[in-house]
Automatic annotation (TrEMBL):
Domain spans labelled Radical SAM core: 31-274
Gene3D superfamilies per record: Aldolase class I (3.20.20.70)
InterPro entries: Aldolase_TIM, Coproporphyrinogen-III_oxidase, Elp3/MiaA/NifB-like_rSAM, HemW-like, rSAM, rSAM_sf
GO terms under cellular component: cytoplasm
Record-given protein name: Heme chaperone HemW
Domain of life: Bacteria
Organism: Micromonospora inositola
Primary localisation category: cytoplasm
Similarity section: Belongs to the anaerobic coproporphyrinogen-III oxidase family. HemW subfamily.
Region (Disordered): 1-21
Functional summary from the UniProt entry: Probably acts as a heme chaperone, transferring heme to an unknown acceptor. Binds one molecule of heme per monomer, possibly covalently. Binds 1 [4Fe-4S] cluster. The cluster is coordinated with 3 cysteines and an exchangeable S-adenosyl-L-methionine.
SMART domains reported in the protein's UniProt record: Elp3 (SM00729)
Key words of the record: 4Fe-4S, Chaperone, Cytoplasm, Heme, Iron, Iron-sulfur, Metal-binding, S-adenosyl-L-methionine
Length: 414
C-alpha cells in the first residue's frame, strides 16, 4: 500500500553498545551536515492512548516515578549538551530543520518547547531559514499557545486530524471533536503559521467512502498547505488489534485502502496540491516538509528523547525507551543511547532505493545495479514507472506505481 502510519517500533532493534559518553567514530563526524542536518525531539507524553497507537508514548498513569512533564525540558537540554560535546570536534552543523513529535508535544507548556528550541540554537545555531515543526493534537492547542509557539520560532505545525467522521474518530479512540482539527488549523494560521499540515488516516474499519470524502473536503476548506494521508495498519499489542482478534471489528481491506488513496489524490490534485512523497501532498515546493525530506534523502539528524533514533555519517543509534531510564542515564552524565549500528554499503543502498523511490523526484537509474535495472524495465513495462522520466534517467512512480510502491522497491533490489 502507498502509505503506512509510521511509528517508533514497539521493540527496539539490537545493535552494538553505545559508548557511555556517546562518542562517534571519527569517520562519521567528518562531514556532519554535508547533506543537511536536522534535530528530532520526541515528547513521549499523551493524555490518553489511542487504540491504534504503537508509538513510544506514556500516559501519566503509565509513567511511574522518575520522569515527569515538568522536568522533561531540563532532561532534554542535558542530552542536547551531550550532543554538542559529541559533535564538538567536527565543524559545527547549522540546524536546517527541527521536528518535535510524539506523543503529544503540546502537552508540554509552550514555554518549555520554546526553551528547548532556544537550547538547540545555542548549541548548534539555527539556520536563518530553519524549518521548525511541532506536532499537536487538535484539542491540545489554544490560540494563545499557538501564538507563543510562533513567537518562539516555530514555523510549521502538524495537526493530527485523522478523520472528520465522529464514528471513525471513536473507533480510533481520538478525543477531539470532528470539527476541532480544522478549527485548530485556522487558529494556527491566525497565529502566524505559514505552514500547516493536517494528518489523515484512511481505511479504518467502518469508514465509508463518504466519510473520507467529507474529511478531504474539510481539509481543503481549512486552507492548509500540506496534507499527509496514511493507510491504517494494525500493530500487535494495540487495543485495536485486540478488538479485531475478538471479532469486534473487521481487519482493514487493501482494496478499500487503494480506493481511499485514489480519492485523496483526485481531491487534493483538484484543490491545487501535488504529491511529493507517496503519502504527502503540498500546495507548493515551499510547503513541503523539509525535515522529512532530510530523512528520505539520507541526511544527518540527532534524535533527542526516549526511544528517539539518530543518524550521523552512516551511524544510526537509538535511545532507551522509557522516560525514567532516559532521565536516569542523563542524570548520571551518561549517553541515553541504547545501541547503534554502522550501515554497510549494501544497507545504505537498500535504504536509498526504498526512500527516494517514494519521492516525486524519483531515483536516478544510475544508482541501480543490473538486477535493479532489469526490475525497473519490468516496472516501466507494467506502467508503474513514468516513461518520460525514465527516458531522462530517473525512476519515478506513476499513480498506479504509488499504489504498488513496496512491490516496485522489492523488484529494484537484489
Amino acid at each position: 500500500m502507498p502509505g503506512t502510519l509510521v511509528a517508533m517500533p514497539g521493540a527496539l532493534p539490537e545493535g552494538e553498545s553505545v559508548p557511555r559518553d556517546g562518542s562517534l567514530p571519527a569517520a562519521a563526524t567528518r562531514a556532519v551536515g554535508a547533506r543537511g542536518f536536522g534535530v528530532y525531539l520526541h515528547v513521549p507524553f499523551c493524555a490518553s492512548r489511542c487504540g491504534y497507537c504503537d508509538f513510544n508514548t506514556y500516559t501519566a498513569a503509565e509513567l511511574g516515578g522518575g520522569a515527569s512533564r515538568e522536568s522533561y525540558a531540563d532532561t532534554v537540554l542535558a542530552e542536547l549538551a551531550l550532543a554538542g560535546r559529541v559533535l564538538g570536534g567536527s565543524p559545527p552543523p547549522r540546524v536546517d530543520t527541527v521536528f518535535v513529535g510524539g506523543g503529544t508535544p503540546t502537552l508540554l507548556p509552550a514555554d518549555d518547547l520554546a526553551r528547548i528550541l532556544d537550547g538547540i540554537d545555542r548549541v548548534w545555531g539555527l539556520a536563518a531559514d530553519a524549518e521548525v515543526t511541532t506536532e499537536a493534537n487538535p484539542e491540545s492547542v489554544t490560540p494563545e499557545s499557538l501564538k507563543t509557539l510562533r513567537a518562539a520560532g516555530y514555523t510549521r505545525i502538524s495537526l493530527g486530524m485523522q478523520s472528520a467522521a465522529p464514528g471513525v474518530l471513536a473507533i480510533l479512540d481520538r478525543k477531539h471533536s470532528a470539527g476541532r482539527a480544522t478549527a485548530a488549523a485556522l487558529e494556527a494560521r491566525d497565529a502566524g503559521f505559514e505552514h500547516v499540515n493536517l494528518d489523515l488516516i484512511y481505511g479504518t474499519p467502518g469508514e465509508r467512502a463518504e466519510d473520507f470524502a467529507a474529511s478531504l473536503d474539510q481539509v481543503v476548506a481549512a486552507g492548509v498547505d500540506h496534507v499527509s494521508a496514511y493507510a491504517l495498519i494494525v500493530e500487535d499489542g494495540t487495543r485495536l488489534a485486540a478488538r479485531m482478534r475478538r471479532g469486534e471489528l473487521p481487519y482493514p481491506s487493501d482494496d478499500v485502502a487503494a480506493d481511499r488513496y485514489l480519492a485523496a489524490e483526485a481531491a487534493l490534485d483538484a484543490a491545487g496540491f501535488s504529491w511529493y512523497e507517496v503519502s504527502n501532498w503540498a500546495r507548493s515546493e515551499a510547503a513541503r516538509c523539509r525535515h522529512n525530506l532530510l530523512y528520505w534523502t539520507g541526511a544527518d539528524w540527532w534524535g533527542l528523547g526516549p526511544g528517539a533514533h539518530s543518524h550521523v555519517g552512516g551511524v544510526r543509534w537509538w535511545n532507551v525507551k522509557h522516560p525514567t531510564t532516559y532521565a536516569e542515564r542523563l542524570a548520571a552524565g551518561e549517553s541515553p543511547g541504547l545501541a547503534r549500528e554502522v550501515l554497510t554499503p549494501d544497507e545504505a543502498h537498500m535504504e536509498d532505493v526504498m526512500l527516494r523511490l517514494r519521492l516525486s523526484s524519483g531515483l536516478p537509474l544510475a544508482v541501480l545495479d543490473d538486477t535493479g535495472r532489469a526490475g525497473a524495465e519490468r516496472a516501466l513495462a507494467g506502467g508503474l514507472l513514468a516513461a518520460p522520466e525514465y527516458a531522462a534517467g530517473r525512476a519515478v512512480l506513476t499513480l498506479r506505481g504509488r499504489l504498488l510502491a513496496d512491490a516496485v522497491v522489492r523488484d529494484l533490489l537484489p
